[in-house]
Specification:
The complex is a heterodimer of chains A (285) and B (191).
Chain A (H helix, E strand, L loop, with lengths): L2 H6 L1 H5 L7 H11 L1 H8 L11 H15 L2 H13 L6 H12 L2 H18 L7 H11 L7 H10 L4 H6 L4 E3 L9 H14 L4 E6 L5 E7 L2 H15 L4 H12 L3 H14 L4 H13 L1
Antiparallel strand pairs in A: 1-3, 2-3
Chain B lengths: L3 H9 L3 H23 L2 H18 L9 H23 L20 H19 L3 H12 L4 H8 L3 H22 L10
Classes of the chains: A mainly alpha (285), B mainly alpha (191).
The complex binds zinc ion (2 copies).
The site of one zinc ion (ZN) has 6 residues of chain A, from helix 1 and helix 4.
């Protein structure tokens, strides 16, 4: 072996990446060559390039101690590879010979071969319907009827985000000059409830036959981004939107709920006891 | 049956039903992937849900020219690796994960066999826990998810050879850790 080759493979040699018989040739060269041995030891070149027999044996012993198990590492990697695809015949032979008298690599081989057994003991999980429901609740899901959601909001105002995230509804009426007044919003809420509108932009007609635009969204994060867009796009929004947006941002929903109540009451769309509760909340404000 | 790509296109048009179909189709695989990374059913469920939420949020970014599976796999993988790194950093002391729910084994399986299975599984989970994120990823994708070296390499944009040696190294590390846990170390063991 030439010094250049030795130097080229030095890091693999020290890292235990080399297998036999190449590994042995490297060891051989290290014993022979003062200059290369100095690189390995990161030492200056020794004064005498020639070793007598005793020195030579010492050097060999030092190298043996230092490199012990290094080629085992190479063997291990080949054995790990062999789980996947068969090794080429020369590698297989090297592994076989090495394993014959290396107890440590024998144990490694047994364990590597046992890995598939270990793997097969992991459970096969099944997500189930509950999981699907939870995911849908966190994302869009089929949009539940508007009215159910408004009722849920009514009962637990603090749960508004929860409900919104639960694939429910946060209604924002959008688009600057087309923002409807309360009268037309009631019509829209009614239509939305009947049609079970999916989330996204919705066009609907008001009672007086005008076309309106609205947005049904499904989650808190989306409300925030949407709201920003609306403000930019519309260059200002109606008072109702302004107030509701503020409520949503600050987490104080009593105002918003009052607004919703105003919409729902004339439609007779919520039960009496809930009216009562809502009335009390309104009073506290 | 609609392809994933078709479903995504419909999701992008806010079709809730297509989204549900997509979730339904992939949830088992994703849940198992998350479990293979976290070793714990509870956090696997949370992680899997995170993955779907992230997918949902990213649907608009999906380029239909790419196969959905590849795109989704790499999104899921990134989240799993992130989660794994964080959870390892959070744990000053690594608790050995024990699968608290046990096996859903059938009753006619002999008890000692079942115990053995259980021990093997817990041992594997503990060993996996000691692997670095990249090695664990290699084991999960190659040996547990059954991806090919080529698929893994293209997902990460590295040469196939690099991926092959990464997998071999991870297996050797895992085997060495398992031997250590079983009290039969190898003489040139890595800590
Ligand atoms: Zn030399
Ligand atoms: Zn060996």
């Amino acid at each position: 072996m030439e010094c250049r080759e030795f130097q080229h493979h030095l890091s693999d040699y020290l890292g235990g990446e080399l297998g036999e018989p190449f590994f042995g040739q490297m060891v051989e060269h290290e014993v022979e060559c003062t200059r290369c041995r100095a690189t390995v030891l990161e030492a200056d070149v020794l004064p005498s390039p020639l070793l007598d027999t005793k020195e030579r044996r010492q050097v060999q012993e030092q190298i043996r101690v230092r490199t012990e198990g290094r080629d085992c590492h190479w063997i291990e990697l080949r054995m790990a590879e062999a789980l996947e695809e068969s090794l080429d015949p020369s590698d297989r032979e090297i592994v076989r010979v090495h394993i014959e008298d290396c107890a440590s690599c024998q144990r490694m081989r047994d364990m590597l071969q046992a890995l598939p057994d270990f793997y097969s003991q992991l459970p096969e999980l099944s997500a189930g319907r509950e999981f699907t429901r939870e995911v849908l609740a966190l994302t869009s899901g089929p949009v539940p009827g508007v009215i159910q959601i408004l009722r849920a909001l009514w009962r637990r105002p603090e749960a508004v985000w929860e409900v919104a995230l639960a694939g429910g509804l946060v209604v924002a009426i959008l688009f600057g000059n087309q923002v409807p007044e309360y009268s037309s919003m009631s019509a829209w809420v009614k239509d939305a409830a009947v049609a079970q509108m999916p989330m996204g932009n919705q066009v609907w007609k008001t009672e007086d036959g005008k076309q309106r635009f609205g947005f049904v969204t499904d989650g808190a994060a989306q409300v925030h981004t949407t709201w920003k867009k609306v403000e930019e796009k519309a260059g200002g929004v109606s008072d109702w939107m302004q107030r509701s947006g503020e409520d949503i941002r600050t987490g104080d929903y009593t105002g918003l709920l009052d607004e919703i109540r105003v919409v729902l009451e004339p439609l007779g769309l919520y039960p009496e006891d809930e009216t009562q509760e809502a009335g009390e909340q309104g009073d506290e404000r | 049956m609609k392809t994933d790509e078709e479903l995504v296109r419909l999701c992008q048009q806010r079709d809730a039903h297509s989204w549900q179909t997509l979730v339904d189709r992939h949830q088992d695989r994703i849940l198992n992937l998350a479990f293979q990374f976290s070793g714990n059913r509870e956090s696997a469920r949370d992680l899997a849900q995170d993955i779907f939420v992230r997918l949902y949020e990213s649907l608009g970014l999906y380029d239909p020219a790419r196969p959905f599976q590849t795109w989704f796999n790499s999104l899921a993988r990134n989240l799993c690796i992130d989660h794994y790194r964080k959870s390892r950093k959070d744990k000053a002391v690594v608790d050995p994960p024990v699968d608290e729910f046990g096996d859903l084994a059938s009753d006619d399986e002999p008890t000692d066999r079942r115990l053995e299975r259980r021990e093997g599984k817990d041992l594997l989970l503990r060993a996996l826990e000691q692997l670095g994120a990249i090695s664990r990823d290699a084991i999960v994708q190659k040996d547990l998810q059954g991806l090919t070296h080529e698929e893994m390499a293209s997902m990460e944009g590295v040469p196939v050879g690099t991926m092959k040696s990464r997998v071999s190294r991870a297996r050797a590390d895992l085997a060495r850790i398992l031997l250590k846990l079983e009290g039969r170390g190898v003489r040139h063991g890595v800590s």
